[in-house]
Amino acid sequence: MHHIAIAGNIGSGKTSLTQLLSKHFGWEAHYEDVESNPYLHSFYDDMQRWSFNLQIYFLNSRFRQVINIRNSGKTVIQDRTIYEDAHIFAPNLHAMNLMSTRDFDNYSSLFELMGSFLKPPDLLIYLKASVPTLVHQIQKRGRDYENAIRLDYLKSLNERYEQWIESYNIGKLLIVDVDKINFIEDPEGLGTIINRINAELHGLFG
User: What pairing do the DSSP bridges indicate for beta strands 76-79 and 3-8?
Assistant: First the structure.
């Protein structure tokens, strides 16, 4: 049993890569709760009003996911991690004055408690992408509520992702440059990623 997770900004291709790798390796896939999320549409309409609600919803949802992964006894691939919520999305909302300090402190305290029960992924795959690539892929998938995403929001998230990945030291890490590897439309690009994952997994499964 192993836990592989895919991290990356909005529009980096996490869900697509999760699907492709799940199919290739026969891993069980756990996806981000987007369609049934009761706060997402409201959040993009009014970030300041709904930021805390959305982040608490994601924290709860992903903590349950990690517990389920741990109890499944299977090798699982997960679309986005709980760490991204705590180290990137919530601090970013706070820095942009879209989440109050009171709410952010409350959120951080809750994550700290949950974190004491967490085991990090055995392998983290980070999808690194420039803002133009993110915008292109967001527009291509055409989710109505994502039309309201601000460029400065995407840019500041990207900067936080880079900082987080630079200091990531709690497990194995594989970085995929989405600007250079089109794994969705190019089978060779996907093959390159699969080969790199196989090289990392020899250490996990060996």
Answer: parallel
CA-to-CA separations, 53 to 50, 63, 144, in angstroms, rounded: 5, 15, 20
| Whole-number Å distance between alpha carbons of 124 and 105 | 27
The answer to whether the pTM exceeds 0.70 is yes
Catalytic residues: 79
Cα 149 to Cα 87, 102, 116, distances in angstroms: 20, 25, 33
| CATH number reported for the structural domain that contains residue 122 in this entry | 3.40.50.300
Domain count, the chain: 1
Taking only the tens of pLDDT, the chain with its 206 residues reads 799 999 999 999 999 999 999 999 999 999 987 778 899 889 888 999 999 999 999 999 999 999 999 899 999 999 999 999 999 999 999 999 999 999 999 999 999 999 999 889 999 999 999 999 999 888 887 777 677 678 888 999 999 999 999 999 999 999 999 999 999 889 999 999 999 999 988 876 65
Domain assignment of residue 181, given as a range:
3-205
